[in-house]
Amino acid sequence: MESKLKCQLEDARRDVMMPSETHADTDRFTISPIGLEFLLITLLRNVHDHPFYSETNQKLDVVRHCRDKSTALRFAAVRDPRRRRFLEISALEEETEALRIIFEVQIRTVKAYDQVLSPDFFPKGTTDRVDLGHRKDMYGLEKRHLEAQIQSLAEDGKTLEVLQRILTATRHDMKQMIEVLDEGHGKAIRVFTFVTLFFLPLSFVTSFFGMNTTDVRELDRDQGIFWSSAVPLTLAVSSLALVFGYKWDTVTALFFKAFKIQDSSRVFKELENDPLSQLGADNARTSCKTGLSSTSKAGISSRFGFESRWKGKPWEKRIPERFKGLEGV
């Protein structure tokens, strides 16, 4: 009976030490010694993986929070682009940059801590052999946890870099959309300005023609003179304002296109009448010699400052003349 109780107590002790393990082959697990160094590693890992709000005990995943905020800002920027969202995007970019720097500092801290805990860090002959062996026994478990912590920090840093690129692209896209919307607002402002410039000087004319001319003595005109002049003028000015505001680019493009067509047709006519395209009878006798008229020669000489001619026959081998020396000075 006593032996059975001891076995049950041993099983209970093992279950308490390994509460999360439910495998049947628990005999394979070994218990490694730990010290204050391992507890500090666990504390650093918990601070990174499970941060808390300052006022409540709720956990906060910083990387996931930044990812959710970035997704919400991108959706809002696409659906409803506004200038004030630039401030929100810039603030989130600053937060992600600060978090990325913090993660880099944490990685350097963990690496430095790993270097200090390594048995090779101690100079030879300065540490007791028993303490060095004890340090080697505990360093294996500590090394695995430190490497896992470094890998987790590196992955979070890469995630923040991706979020920064997404935020930069979001800001650029929203800037382009706002510029397109501002172009439409600019057209409406252009129409309003055009109408104002036309009708402001005509306010006196409209007030003059809008008088009650029926009751004026010795005046054979009535109110019809106002409507006959005001309605066509209003329609004309409104039409011109709409064309100037919304179709002015098309009008200017058509104008320049027609001007280029006329210019090109004029150039083609000049080329057809150019004497350079006609070869004279002298070209048949002199090989590869281009006959230029006096007009074309003068034009080319005035443009380029030289005249191009072929002297001699191109198929004959040209022999350089002998040097005759300097003539008498």
What is the number of helices? 10
Main sheet specs: none
Radius of gyration: 46 Å
Strand content: under 5%
Shape field:
rod-shaped
Q: What's the N-to-C terminus distance? A: 141 Å
Helix residue percentage: 55-70%
Summed over residues and divided by their number, the pLDDT gives a mean of 69
SSE string, helix = H, strand = E? HHHHHHHHHH
The total count of strands amounts to 0
Please mark out the parts with pLDDT under 50 across 5 or more consecutive residues, or reply none: 19-26, 276-317
Question: Based on helices, strands and strand pairing, what is the structural class?
Answer: mainly alpha
Brief summary:
With 329 residues, this protein is mostly helical. It has ten helices and no strands. Helix 2 (36-49) packs parallel to helix 5, helix 3 runs parallel beside helix 5 (129-199) and helix 4 (85-117) packs antiparallel against helix 5.
Structure description:
The chain is mostly helical. The chain has a domain at 30-189. Helix content is 67%, strand content 0%. The chain is built from ten helices and no strands. Helix 3 packs parallel to helix 5, helix 4 (85-117) packs antiparallel against helix 5 and helix 5 (129-199) runs antiparallel to helix 7.
Keywords:
single chain; 329 residues; mainly alpha; 10 helices; 67% helix; rod-shaped
Helix-strand layout with pairing:
Elements: H1 2-17, H2 36-49, H3 62-79, H4 85-117, H5 129-199, H6 203-209, H7 224-246, H8 248-272, H9 282-285, H10 294-304
Helix pairs in contact: 2-5, 3-4, 3-5, 4-5, 5-7
